[in-house]
Amino acid sequence: MHKKKIRILVLSWHPESRNLIAGGFVKAQEILKRRPKNVKVLLIDKKGSLLRCDKRIEYSIPRGIIKIRDRSFILGRVLEWFYVFLYLLYKQISLNKYYDVVYIPTAELTFLTLSAVISKLFTRKKIIADILNIKIFGGNVIGFYRILRSRGYSTFSSLVGSIGTFISRKLLIWSINNADKVLTISKDLKKDLTRYGVKKNISVIPVGIDIALYKKIKKQKKIYDAIFIGRHTPEKGIFDLIDVWKLVVKKKKDAKLVMAGLCDSVTKDKLKRLIKKNKLEDNVFLMGEVTESSKIKLLKQSKTLLFLSHIEGWGIVPFEGLACGLPVIAYNLPVYKETIKECKSVFLFKKKDYANISKKVVNLSKKYSKYRFESISYVKTYSWDKISVKQYSVMTCDFK
């Protein structure tokens, strides 16, 4: 039976990084890579996009905004997002006849979703919002201001960031409620969306893992006792890692922790100061951004994945660690009840339980190999192929 051709316009934005190492961009990449033959994708993304598509339009950020961002990161980022909002709004209206539906794979980015909702007034095209993490909008203006100040941002940047976040949260919930379909990746995140005020029916479609990708990288010599992969932000637990590692080193002097992921200059400077203060220069290694293949090599060169994130909508990184045969240490987040808690090579702890976490790290540095089979076997059930079929079934059901 011939399937109707469906043209999907995908709206996207990514940080300066050209490397996909974790999170929502991985899901977008895997879903678009497995699109059905009757689905054609027109992608609008920032220059340097790694997402798969049939046709691509890339945009660049004006130099003036980049210069402002170099001096004041938060103000520059806000201006960048406003520019992208206006650009996408114009493009959606001008390209109206070339697509049937708009898909936003990272719909928690307000400027993307808002542009689609406003353009809908002119185009009448349906909107599919895929939300991967609403938890980043927790707290109030004062609380967020204090967080930014504690990270080392100036008073002005912290004010802009905290007020902007408050406004963004209100606009995001309004935008999501005006989308035609809302998807998310876990039951836990669905509860959060409802609690924040989303009234739409929400479909839950989980995240997968590409086992074949991890098999391509051959076995590596173990160098590191533990690894962290992900954005270097406080909510990802990067400073918790330092608190844990100074205790690990007391028990194992040559213990090595490697950290890989996007890190802004303010956070990087703070990390370096903490490493120096605790005399961990020979124990903690900051790799910065790495390519996908380098990420997998680092994982396979490590004995344990140490992932102390405070908030997760799903948690792709623990699955990546398991796919490399590693045991995983993480905080006992609610979402893990439906993802990794049942895996025998996953060890969950209360937040800030540094003493017991450090003991487990030392223990696993000797016994990590016994968990290899359990880790790899567990993630095999989370196939991107199966998940993509379900994703496109939900996305395209109105066009059959």
What features would you describe in this structure?
The structure is a single chain. The chain is α/β, with parallel strands linked by helices and 400 residues long. It has 2 domains: 6-208 and 383-399, Rossmann fold (3-Layer(aba) Sandwich), CATH 3.40.50; 211-379, Glycogen Phosphorylase B (Rossmann fold, 3-Layer(aba) Sandwich), CATH 3.40.50. 46% of the residues lie in helices and 15% in strands. The protein has helices at residues 24-33, 63-71, 73-94, 110-123, 141-150, 155-177, 187-196, 211-215, 238-251, 265-277, 292-300, 316-323, 354-367, 372-379, 384-396; strands at 6-11, 39-46, 55-59, 101-104, 126-131, 181-184, 202-204, 226-229, 257-260, 284-288, 305-307, 328-331, 346-349. The strands form 3 sheets. Strands 3-2-1-4-5-6-7 form a 7-stranded parallel sheet, sandwiched between helices. A 3-stranded parallel sheet has the order 8-9-10, sandwiched between helices. β1, α1 (24-33) and β2 (39-46) form a beta-alpha-beta unit. The chain is globular. The N and C termini lie close together (11 Å).
